[in-house]
Design brief:
Blueprint (H helix, E strand, L loop, with lengths): L12 E4 L2 E4 H15 L1 E3 H8 L3 H14 L2 E4 L2 E4 L6 E2 L5 H4 L4 H12 L7 E4 L3 H7 L7 E5 L2 H7 L5 E4 L4 E2 L6 E2 L1 H8 L3 E7 L2 E3 L3 E4 L2 H12 L1 E7 L7 E2 L2 E4 L6 E3 L6 H8 L4 E2 L1
Parallel strand pairs: 6-16, 7-8, 7-12, 8-9, 12-15, 15-18, 18-19
Antiparallel strand pairs: 1-2, 3-5, 4-5, 10-11, 13-14, 14-17
Length: 274
């Protein structure tokens, strides 16, 4: 049934028509809907689950005890958190020295998932770059949109590296433009290791640079398995643009300081954490 200290409690059965669901499971679904849409109404949830409005109101009150949810007339919404910070783009040279030890731990974990013959996608960021340090002599194909990642990967003894032509953004090293998008879509990637700039409960994975959003999303769309690699400094942060739906991510690879409430937020969506 899950841990005894789970925030979503209250186990009992209900039946009405074809509806049969544990309270805890219904509340998990409602919580996922709130995270995905930002708000819900009592009426729509009552119709969806075949229960009374009063039942949904009790569900929302229970969820509000453990999550940043505000109950309003007729429904509820995720509360805008004053503690959530907006991130701005940093040059990759500045990122490399931040949270160095945590990023090394994450990079080692990620590298252990890479096997001989894999076609892997690497987007941008210092954590993604550090993964290359641990690939060793594995025979891999590396697809990237980032010149810094490509340059480092070329030093590997058994790596074949693919990168598009186009304009390079000096702050991130990303190659941008229509040619980059077509380039990515021509591949079928086994595993994508994906660095992020920001994650918040209300809006999910976010990014501060619009022209990089579509390219990053395209890389995820052609990959069989998607791994987010992020240290805890990216958590409870926002940026200008939504990057990708959470349901395309299969796993988060994180550091030891990753906040417990965000661990729960991720696992409730059916996403693994390493």
């Amino acid at each position: 049934m899950g841990p005894a200290n789970s925030r979503i409690s209250g186990i009992c059965w209900f039946e009405r028509g074809y509806s049969k669901l544990l309270n805890v499971d219904r509340r998990k679904e409602i919580l996922n809907t709130l995270f995905g849409r930002g708000s819900v109404t009592v009426g729509e949830l009552a119709r969806k689950y075949g229960v009374r409005d009063e039942t949904i109101r009790r569900d929302l009150k229970e969820l509000a005890r453990g999550w940043d949810i505000e109950i309003v007339y007729g429904g509820a919404h995720i509360r805008d958190s004053n503690g959530t910070q907006a991130v701005k783009e940093l040059a990759v040279s500045a990122k490399r020295s931040e949270n160095y030890e945590a990023k090394q731990i994450i990079a080692r974990k990620a590298s252990e998932l890479i096997e001989d013959g894999d076609m892997i996608g690497l987007n941008s960021g210092s954590t993604v770059e550090y993964i290359i340090d641990y690939i060793g002599d594995k025979s891999v194909h590396i697809i990237t949109l980032n010149v810094n990642v490509a340059a480092k990967a070329l030093l590997l003894p058994k790596a074949t590296v693919y990168i598009p032509g186009g304009r390079v953004r000096s702050s991130s090293g990303m190659v941008v433009g229509p040619g980059s998008l077509d380039f990515i879509k021509s591949f079928s990637i086994d595993k994508c290791f994906f660095g992020i700039s920001a994650l918040c409960k209300k809006r999910g994975i976010m990014h501060p640079v619009l022209e990089e959003v579509e390219l990053n999303a395209a890389m995820l769309s052609v990959s069989d398995k998607n791994y987010v690699v992020t240290d805890s400094s990216k958590i409870n942060k926002t940026a200008f643009f939504s990057m990708t739906p959470m349901d395309v991510i299969g796993c988060f690879i994180v550091d030891d300081d990753f906040p417990p409430d965000y661990r729960e937020y991720i696992t409730l969506r059916g996403i693994n954490i390493i």
